[in-house]
Amino acid sequence: MKKMKSMLAIAMTSVLAVGVLAGCGAGGQNNAGQAGQPAPAADQAQPSGATKKLVMATSADYPPYEFHDLSSGQDKIVGFDVDIANYIGKELGYEIEIQDMNFDGLIPALQSKRADFVMAGMTPKPERLQNADFSAIYYEARNTIVSKKDSNITKPEDLANKKVVVQLGSIQEGDAKEMAKTIPGMQITSLNKIGEMVQEIKTGRIDAAIIEDTVAKGFVANNPELQFNTLPDAGDNGSAVAFPKGSEHVEEFNNVIKKMQENGEMEKLIKKWFGE
Ligand code: ARG
Predict the structure, then answer these.
(1) SS3 assignment, position 145
(2) Ligand 1 pocket, residues with Cβ under 6 angstroms
(3) Among 3.40.190.10, 3.40.960.10, 3.30.70.60, 3.40.50.1000, what is the CATH number of 53-139+238-274?
(4) Class assignment of domain 143-230?
(5) pLDDT, tens only, 229-262
(6) For the chain, how are helix, strand and coil distributed in percent, rounded to 5?
(7) Which atom of ligand 1 is nearest to the CA of 59?
(8) Confidence at residue 32, expressed as pLDDT on a 0 to 100 scale
(9) Is the pLDDT assigned to residue 3 strictly greater than 50?
(10) What is the mean pLDDT of the chain?
């Protein structure tokens, strides 16, 4: 458990550090390791016989799912999703190349075939099903309200006349808009990176954020002035792999996910990253 904490501490620091280094720019990619123009998804133009490569797009602001680990002196994207992707790649004989971008750019990256799949703690919500195909759900999470401990904000009603931040293009953005219909004066801001959202709460410019429990937990552990409270009817936010519509990879990915659930590998990774 101690190990888990220090690992998350590194994660949080990395997320902030990268946010600053990258200037938190809007749109596009800011993986320090991936300079230049996005190449077309690798598996289209492979000479036959070469190791097949699949491009995975993600938004690496989401510890413990995916985040920048700078602890080795190098900028590496690691996390639960990355481990699952690498396992699947190994099973199916693909090399996995990771491209980091803003969360709201992920589905467009699939649509324009710049990525073969997305793993980003992404939930297969109905609107997304029109633009992407999804694997089976591999992990469940719930929404929480993150706020300062001294804020008295613990439940939805407390968000009346408050400023609330959510990640641009996330399920939480839609959920917050839904909540605002019945909570008077609740104002919503959308930002690209979770690290920036947490920063806004710490400085007091924003009162609260809607963030998934598994991610909120880590940020709160590293910022003792913050708290999180699970939303009552939090609706499930399962994570699944997203693919371009009609992708040939859905079935083979599903087969490996099923295998991982049966052979204990998934449980092992859940313990490793979520400590459960
Ligand atoms: N599960 C939520 C969604 O699908 C949030 C995911 C955010 N992921 C990230 N890598 N920032 O909208």
Answers:
(1) strand
(2) 59, 61-62, 65-66, 103, 120-123, 167, 170-171, 194, 212, 237
(3) 3.40.190.10
(4) alpha beta
(5) 999 875 668 999 999 999 999 999 999 999 999 9
(6) 40, 25, 35
(7) 10
(8) 39
(9) no
(10) 87
| Ranges of each domain in the chain | 53-139+238-274, 143-230
Q: Which tokens in the block code for residue 86?
A: 């690498």
CA dihedral over 209, 218, 55, 25, signed as positive or negative: positive
Atom of ligand 1 nearest to the CA of 171: 12
Kindly give the distance from the C-alpha atom of residue 194 to the centroid of ligand 1, in angstroms, as a whole number: 10
Which of 237, 239, 241, 273 most suits a substitution to test ligand 1, by most atoms within 8 Å of the C-beta? 237
Atom of ligand 1 nearest to the CA of 66: 10
Q: Give me the amino acid identity at 20.
A: V
Length in residues, the chain = 276
**Quick one: how far is CA 146 from the chain centroid?**
16
pTM: 0.83
C-beta pairs of 158-161 under 8 Å, 24+ apart in sequence: 159/183, 159/186, 159/207, 159/208, 160/184, 160/185, 160/186, 161/185, 161/186
Atom of ligand 1 nearest to the CA of 122: 4
Same CATH topology for 53-139+238-274 and 143-230: the answer is: yes
- The DSSP element (H or E) to which 151 belongs, if any, is none
Question: Which residue type, as a one-letter code, is found at position 193?
Answer: K
Q: List the beta strands (DSSP E) in the chain.
A: 52-58, 61-62, 66-69, 76-78, 94-100, 117-118, 133-139, 143-148, 163-167, 187-191, 208-212, 226-230, 239-243
* Ligand 1 centroid from CA 229, angstroms: 18
For the chain, give me the number of helices (H) and strands (E)? 9, 13
Distance (Å) from CA 47 to ligand 1 centroid: 34
